[in-house]
Amino acid sequence: MDDLTPQLEALSARLAEAEGYLHLADKRTQLTKLEAEFAQPGFWDDQSKASKLSKQASDLRVDIEAYDKAAALLEEATVANELALADSDEALYSEAAAATTQLSEQIDALELASWFTGELDGGDAIISVNPGQGGLEAQDWADMLFKMYVGYARRRGWKVEVLDAPAGEVIGIDHATFIVSGHNAYGMLAAEQGVHRLVRKSPTDEQHRRQTTFASVEVLPVLPEDIEIEIKEADLRIDVFRSSGPGGQSVNTTDSAVRITHLPTNTVVTCQNEKSQLQNKESAMKILRSRLYEQEQARREAELEALRGPRQEASWANQIRNYVLDPYQRIKDVRTEVETGNVDAVLDGDLDQFIVAYLRMKAAG
Q: Are residues 333 and 252 in the same domain?
């Protein structure tokens, strides 16, 4: 059996570096202060403030607990390795090797967290998927991407709230808008902003000829309540209509769907998956705030790329990733050149290899 000591020493050094660049000492201090504030009489009377600080404390705990878990695993692997070598115990050595592999993965995740330095990276994301060139095929492709991101969120333990996903005329969806809630959701999913290209035999073509199809993915941050975006009632046109969403009988028989148009910018947002018109309006306003914030950032600071990348037409030569299902099976990211032949896993939500590679490239400049 091989001595795992060199690997464990290297992982120990990486873990010590992670403690520094994640500023864990400061985070522990901040968390202690927040928890003391939670215990103060009347703290929960201001629900808005309490909710904001609770979210802040939760985010601090995620990084602290991840580090503490890795530190405990390092100690466990080190002891198991020493005992295995001393007693020539193959079973104990296998445990040490497995713990070492797990520890490496956990430190990778800690390093990944250190890349999220933007003000909104740690928060939730609003994702919109829209068909591009390709007709009915593009609507089906948009539906496949929608399900892929729902699968990715499920793998990461994130929550998905579908706001709008009306069915296409024949197959697929007309578009989809949904919120993904979880630690660093926006920081991770911002890597998916762009055009996605699909090549496969067409399910709508009787001769089953190959067809190239496009869909675009837009990723926006969910804005915290303390970021003020001025929206005047006079600048809004609000239309209500009968929902075509899957929200149940009452959704389909009442005028609960909402379309909001911001007249000065001609920004249009729709939401129809809630049963209540009021709930749909609130969700649509949340998306509108994020879109107007993005536009203001672009005008003021020319930092559109920092938030979500440049807008590109969903067509040839603009894609960030190619998904080829026929005549062979291969998915390749144009930006990083990461590729895989396991297309079923990717379409089921196994996206970390692409997202992490892009974020690593971006962090390296």
A: yes
